[in-house]
Amino acid sequence: MAITRVALCLSFAFLFYVVGGAKVTFINKCRYTVWPGTLTGDQKPQLSTTGFRLKPHATNSIYLPSPWSGRFWGRTGCSYNNGKFSCATADCASGQVQCNGAGAIPPATLVELTVASNGGQDFYDVSNVDGFNVPMSITPQGGRGDCKTSSCPANINIVCPAVLQVKGSRGSVVACQSACLKFNTDEYCCRGSHNTPATCPPSKYATIFKNQCHDAYSYAYDDKTGTFTCFGGPSYAITFCP
After folding, report:
1. Which of 39, 44, 178, 194 is most solvent-facing, going by the fewest CB within 10 Å?
2. Cα–Cα distances in Å, from 107 out to 70, 80, 164, 189, 220?
């Protein structure tokens, strides 16, 4: 009888977790394997998985509690060396497939998501503020309101200026740094006397990112075209190489 009560409690707890949050399905349309990473913000507990392998054409789903805020990204060129796991781009330096609460080392394309309570207003975006390493998109499934796809479908590495390029072991460009990451100045990082939209317009480098991916954040004050919203507790699809 005690076992039955425990099983019922676990079932109801799982049902509350699913209904009260959001299902996120990861889809890999790249021709190469991607290792997604997850990071929960606001010093809240991490998700049940903080990293996993996603082969070409594969999918995987996780569930978010409500409310929740955090980010997702894709690591590329990953392998084990002397028992330590590492990646050529967007590594989280945990030494494992699981990131365990560590974020992506830039440059990295990010999907940022805030899930509201009780079907309220969710916020989401694709961001290249920390640079670019892999095309990504996030699409609400269900919900009310605009609920549009936020996407960076282009391979920015192809047009990345030489000064921002990150090259892999074979000499090919594997990631593109942001100007803030590369030069670390107030002008490019929108800080100090440049910490307002009026004093920090998009730089020539941010414009390159924006021209390739209009619906993604290209720099710190790119809110007008970079932020997306959806009501009603939708699920989400996050696609690599959409």
Report:
1. 44
2. 17, 21, 10, 14, 15
pLDDT score for 59: 98
* CA–CA separation, 153 and 215 (whole Å): 9
Q: Using CA atoms, how far apart are residues 186 and 79, in angstroms rounded to an integer?
A: 36
The SS3 assignment for 23 reads: strand
Q: What is d(CA 237, CA 239) in angstroms, rounded to the nearest whole number?
A: 6
CA distance 90 to 102: 11
How far is the C-alpha of 98 from the C-alpha of 141, rounded, in Å? 27
Place of tokens 């209009």: 214
Q: Return the DSSP state at 201.
A: P
140-155 pLDDT per residue, tens: 999 999 999 999 999 9
Amino acid type, 230: C
Q: Are 90 and 104 in contact (CB under 8 A)?
A: yes
Locus of tokens 């699409």: 139
Q: What is the pLDDT of residues 186-217, one digit of tens each?
A: 999 999 999 999 999 999 999 999 999 999 99
Reported in sequence order, the residue ranges of 169-231 that DSSP labels E, i.e. its strands, are 173-176, 228-230
CA–CA–CA angle 235, 240, 242 (5° rounding): 85
CA distance 43 to 28: 29
- Identify which of 110, 107, 97 has the alpha carbon closest to the alpha carbon of residue 70: 110
Write the CB contacts of 61 (distance below 8 Å, at least 6 apart in sequence): 23, 24, 25, 26
Q: Can you list the residues of the chain whose pLDDT is less than 50? A: 1-19
